[in-house]
Structures are given as structure tokens and as C-alpha cells.
Design goal:
The chain has 7 helices and 11 strands. The termini are far apart. By secondary structure, it is of the alpha+beta class. The C terminus is likely disordered.
């Protein structure tokens, strides 16, 4: 099972819009092996294309072994992030078949790849001075918490803390949400903000939007704090050695 498979409890084309968006977000950050017609010549590659509903689609898998298994043997391939491959194919008006025969199988047409490229172009807006914070709305927590926890886990080596808060409006109700990031080096903050903005672009829009702020101050009472501690794999008991023979 791969990271894409883990998200595919329901097959991609049967899943709801939010699950499909999370899978496409993960696809963008996944290293893919894409089939080529011949071995690469310097910086030039030629993708192997397959007929797809009157158009053409490239073939890619998230491991080289899956690609070889599908094509019944070793094949020339190039490795690149899904975001790069999506951009190349969108420009060419072609589609993409990913992980055929596996739980995360998906067939994306050129329109889907254009949408993915547009979502990846998301940039965080400059935060305005809205400092009256409160607990986030329950609806925002339900929609944003799991995918944000997953993305923040990827960033745990760059940040020390994260929390989701609400921006207080009338009647003490949140009118927008604010994602607070602590412990991020200043030179890494634009890249971190870009990665989080991309993730938010794949999630259901929230009333008032979701801002991103870097602050080492304690989150407000009621904020949703994310656990960034690395998960320790369970200890595996070592098998006892064979008996001593006399």
C-alpha cells in the first residue's frame, strides 16, 4: 500500500468531491514513474501515450515496480512529481492514467489536469490585522482538520506547532478561520505558506476563507491544536534464537 492507496478507501471515481480533491493533492506531491517510448536523451523525454476516449493519456505509477508489472516487463521511464507531470500533460491537452489495477487507480482527463494545475497555483493572501481570535467553527473543523493534519505532519521538521482558530465577528461567532503556524524559520515561511495554501485550495471553501499566519504566541482558548509529534512505529519482538545444541 502506498500513500495514494491509503486515501483510496473508496475508489477515486466513486468517491465524494472532498476525497477526490485530497487524492489529487497527494498525487501532486507524489513521485511518479511515467512510461516513456525510449530511454531519455539528455533532458528530452517522449512520453508513451495510450488512446483514451478519442484522446491520448500518459501512464504513471507511484512505484517503478507497479509500472513494470502493468506493462509486463521493464520499460523506460522518467521520475517526476505529479505536479510537474500534470502541467506537461495539461499543456498538451492529454490525460493521465495513474496506478491501474490498484486501489488508487484514477483516470484524469485534460480538464481535470488543468483544474489541478490551477489549484496548485494558489498563493496565500497577505494576512490583514485581524487579531480577535476565538474557537474555529465546528463545520470548519470537520472539513479541514483531517487533511490539514496530514499536510502539517509532512512539515513537522520545519515547524514546532500549528493550530486552527476562528476570527471573531458579531455575536462572538467566527466569520473566518486562521491557521496559526509556530516555529517556522523566516526563510522557509513563504514555501510553507504556499504548501498549506495548496492544500486549502483542494478543500471545501469556508465562509470568510482561511488565512495563514506565522506566530509563536499561544493559540487562543478553544483553538484546534495539531499534534506534530512523530509517530513511533510499534516495537517488533525479536524471535528467540534456536536452542543450543550439545
Amino acid at each position: 500500500m502506498t500513500a495514494l492507496d491509503d486515501l483510496a478507501e473508496t475508489p477515486f471515481h466513486e468517491a465524494d468531491a472532498q476525497t477526490r480533491s485530497r487524492m489529487m493533492s497527494r498525487l501532486a506531491d507524489t513521485r511518479l514513474a511515467v512510461a516513456l517510448t525510449t530511454q531519455p536523451m539528455g533532458d528530452e523525454i517522449e512520453l508513451q501515450m495510450f488512446p483514451f476516449e478519442g484522446n491520448q493519456a500518459a501512464l504513471a505509477c507511484d512505484t517503478e515496480e507497479r509500472l513494470a508489472d502493468f506493462l509486463n516487463g521493464p520499460t523506460p521511464y522518467a521520475a517526476m512529481p505529479g505536479r510537474v507531470l500534470a502541467g506537461l500533460l495539461a499543456d498538451a491537452g492529454a490525460g493521465l492514467l495513474v496506478n491501474p489495477g490498484h486501489p488508487s487507480q484514477m483516470l484524469l482527463d485534460a480538464g481535470s489536469l488543468m483544474w489541478l494545475r490551477g489549484a496548485l497555483a494558489a498563493r496565500p493572501e497577505a494576512e490583514t490585522a485581524r487579531l480577535d481570535l476565538c474557537a474555529p467553527s465546528p463545520e470548519a473543523v470537520a472539513a479541514l482538520a483531517p487533511p490539514l493534519a496530514e499536510r502539517l505532519g509532512d512539515l513537522r521538521d520545519l515547524i514546532t506547532g500549528a493550530a486552527l482558530a476562528g476570527i471573531r465577528g458579531e455575536r462572538d461567532q467566527p466569520v473566518a478561520q486562521l491557521l496559526l503556524i509556530a516555529g517556522a524559520p523566516e526563510d522557509q515561511q513563504p514555501a510553507i505558506a504556499k504548501a498549506l495554501a495548496e492544500t486549502l485550495a483542494f478543500l471545501p471553501p469556508q465562509p470568510g476563507g482561511v488565512d495563514i499566519s506565522f506566530s509563536d504566541a499561544a493559540p487562543p482558548a478553544g483553538a484546534l491544536r495539531f499534534d506534530l509529534t512523530a509517530q513511533t512505529p510499534p516495537a517488533v519482538a525479536r524471535p528467540k534464537g534456536p536452542p543450543n545444541l550439545r
